Amino acid sequence: xxxxxxxxxxxxxxxxxxxxxxxxxxxxxxxxxxxxxxxxxxxxxxxxxxxxxxxxxxxxxxxxxxxxxxxxxxxxxxxxxxxxxxxxxxxxxxxxxxxxxxxxxxxxxxxxxxxxxxxxxxxxx
Amino acid sequence: xxxxxxxxxxxxxxxxxxxxxxxxxxxxxxxxxxxxxxxxxxxxxxxxxxxxxxxxxxxxxxxxxxxxxxxxxxxxxxxxxxxxxxxxxxxxxxxxxxxxxxxxxxxxxxxxxxxxxxxxxxxxxxxxxxxxxxxxxxxxxxxxxxxxxxxxxxxxxxxxxxxxxxxxxxxxxxxxxxxxxxxxxxxxxxxxxxxxxxxxxxxxxxxxxxxxxxxxxxxxxxxxxxxxxxxxxxxxxxxxxxxxxxxxxxxxxxxxxxxxxxxxxxxxxxxxxxxxxxxxxxxxxxxxxxxxxxxxxxxxxxxxxxxxxxxxxxxxxxxxxxxxxxxx
Lengths: 125, 328
Known about the structure:
The complex is a heterodimer.
Chain A: H1 7-22, H2 28-66, H3 72-85, H4 95-110, H5 115-122
Helix pairs in contact in A: 1-2, 2-3, 2-4
Chain B: H1 2-13, E1 19-28, E2 33-40, E3 46-53, H2 67-79, E4 87-90, E5 99-104, H3 112-117, H4 125-140, H5 155-169, H6 174-185, E6 195-197, E7 206-209, E8 212-216, E9 223-225, H7 228-233, H8 254-263, H9 270-297, H10 303-309, H11 312-323
Antiparallel strand pairs in B: 1-2, 2-3, 3-5, 4-5, 6-9, 7-8
Helix pairs in contact in B: 4-8, 5-6, 5-9, 6-9, 6-11, 9-10, 9-11
């Protein structure tokens, strides 16, 4: 078992340092690159924080939908194949709900400020 | 170095020109560059833009029409009254600048977020959706017998190509699978009419001033196909830059776009426009995946490219909003 602080705490500390201490010192294209770098660290922090729980729920939904077991990757491949073959579609009970829940969990990590995501959250995501 | 070559070039074809100054690179990948510069002239400086492939980079990517075709299309558009920069010169070997062309510089803004937020454009914004309809109608009416050689691409081929690109990413995305199925099930087949299609007509590729659209840029994806493709692409949510209730580039409604198009004497097929909007949303999503691939495998190992890979999920939520909308 690894010691503390956790990867989440370490990544967040670096992001906060860059944001508060380095941003005021930099301008122009380098400032743009720094903003991208901070965005990446924030994304990594969100993924480290949320991925375990969201993957567990995704696997649970996929098992129910597909009637098989496997890793989150294996189950996603199986679902993708079934959609491609036309065996599963939007008329399949639970598919739309599953895709919505999964996609909202992805946006929560990737782009929580994306306007479509904020709109759907306000509907009660 | 480039200024010296530009100086020699402009003196050959621009009457009275004595040189070139203020050359600055605006954008550039490995194979294509855009430069701004001023032609020194006794009547005052002439603002110009150079688009070129540097020497040794002749081959265009498969989807691109090529710089020669781009120059011809812009000139044709300019002559037909479609807002476009005037092409001043097509590069020849004596220019020693590679292949490409030089065009008149049109002043104005291309950065979508500024156009959507800055006060300077407040009066123009409500008119843009309708104006864009009129411009697309003019573009689709460009005389086919004068067009350069262009690839011809319909819905069926596009679906097949996107499916191949998606499969090559080898990362399962059930929402993309759903979109591919939706598209194949509704493939409208060849369009009744084949016209010039700009291929990348959207907020971000237009020069806009306080008076409206001043120039249509980035003709490199021009091809022959279904004119409704351009109407669908301009509505893709990724080009609304947050103004999600204004489908046409964040400027206005589909009804305004369609009215502008029809007022210019052309007909809209809203079903096909919707089809191409779904196609376009998927297209941008797959392109995000392609950026990730180039980040991982290619020479451009930049953070920006890496992060674009993480924008594919934006198109997944937009596809769901189009294909499986939740009750409001």
